[in-house]
Amino acid sequence: MSKHSVAAAIHSKKSSATTNEHGVFTYGNDTICYDVIRKTKPADNAKQTARKVIIKVHPDQRVVATVPHDASEDAIVDAMHKRARWIWQNIDDFAKQKDTVLHKRYVSGETQFYLGKRYVLKVIVDAEQVPSVKLSRGKLNVTLKHEVSKETDERLVKIKPLIDKWYQHKAKAIFHERLTELLPKATWVTGIPSFRVMAMKKQWGSCSTKGNLMLNPHLVKAPKECIDYVILHELCHIAEHNHSDKFWRLLTQVMPNWKEVKAKLDDMAEMYLNE
Fold first, then answer.
1. Could you tell me where the DSSP H helices lie in 6-113?
2. Which of left, alpha, beta for 211 (phi over 0: left; psi -120 to 50: alpha)?
3. How buried is 29 (Cβ within 10 angstroms: 0-12 exposed, 13-18 middle, 19+ buried)?
4. Of 13, 11, 18, nearest to 247 (Cα)?
5. pLDDT at 249 over 80
6. Interhelix angle 258-273/224-239, nearest 10 degrees
7. pLDDT digits (tens, 9 = 90+) for 196-237
8. Alpha carbons 193 and 110: distance in angstroms, whole number
9. Left (φ > 0), alpha (ψ -120 to 50) or beta: where does 101 sit?
10. Are 167 and 218 in contact (CB under 8 A)?
11. Which stretches does DSSP call E strand in the chain?
12. By C-alpha distance, which of 6, 5, 7, 15 is closest to 35?
């Protein structure tokens, strides 16, 4: 990336993205795109908060500007100008780090996620115990009958299936709990939609034309508010099958802060999906 002059612009368009406002600026010879998320308009009696443009560069190199609900285009563009070098540097740093995200080796000391919290993996060998996975005191304990070598391939065969099965079991229980809790908000849904848990590489969930949901078990690694966002997103598809303006309005109606929650989920997606 070269570093010279900066030019920026912002425009609105209808799309299926998390926001219908997008901007672009050039830094030297590089073109950088960004999304704009407007905060919801505060109530008249709400406590006054700082009115500034908050810029964040995510690990997947997305640039997001969170702005006051009534921020002008000029104010947003000006903020991008002022932080251009910082934005460029962060994108460059994340690009370099991308290749260093290591796949799981399933050895004691590695991090596993559950409901947004980090747990330390501990592999225990006990010939008297049935192979199992249990969460206890900040650790995810995996018990095996026999010692396994340090070779990654063997650990993938012996340990990973146990952890995957544990995540599947937890996902089914948590998703059922959250779906039951959220259904009263989805007044357009009749009955309780059926759902399946299936690992997916690029989707957190989907909804069939018949209203059946499919949810990614890796989603159980995220905070409950992120799980709620995905479930509500798919429930909205029962009423609106595409990402039309009606769909986004409906989602905003049942979850006003969905943009911020989705940004949080996107920010950690690479970690949650890392196997």
1. 73-82, 84-98
2. left
3. exposed
4. 18
5. yes
6. 110
7. 999 988 889 999 988 999 999 999 999 999 999 999 999 999
8. 36
9. beta
10. yes
11. 6-12, 21-27, 30-38, 54-57, 63-67, 111-114, 117-125, 132-136, 139-144, 195-197, 205-207, 213-215
12. 15
d(CA 275, CA 271): 9
Instruction: At 46, list the tokens.
Output: 């709400």
Residue type, 89: Q
Q: Which long-range contacts (CB under 8 A, 24 or more apart) does 150-154 make?
A: 150/107, 152/105, 152/106
- Mapped onto helix, strand or coil, the DSSP state of residue 242 is coil
Indicate the residue type of 227.
Answer: I
Q: What are phi and psi of 170, to 5 degrees?
A: -65, -40
Neighbour order of strands in the sheet with 63-67: 6-12, 21-27, 30-38, 63-67, 54-57
pTM of the predicted model, to two decimals?
0.66
Residue 28 structure tokens: 């030297």
Which domains does the chain carry? 6-98 (no CATH), 111-273 (3.30.2010.10)
Which token pair is 99?
């290749």
Q: Which two tokens stand for residue 88?
A: 């460029």
β 54-57/30-38 pair status: unpaired
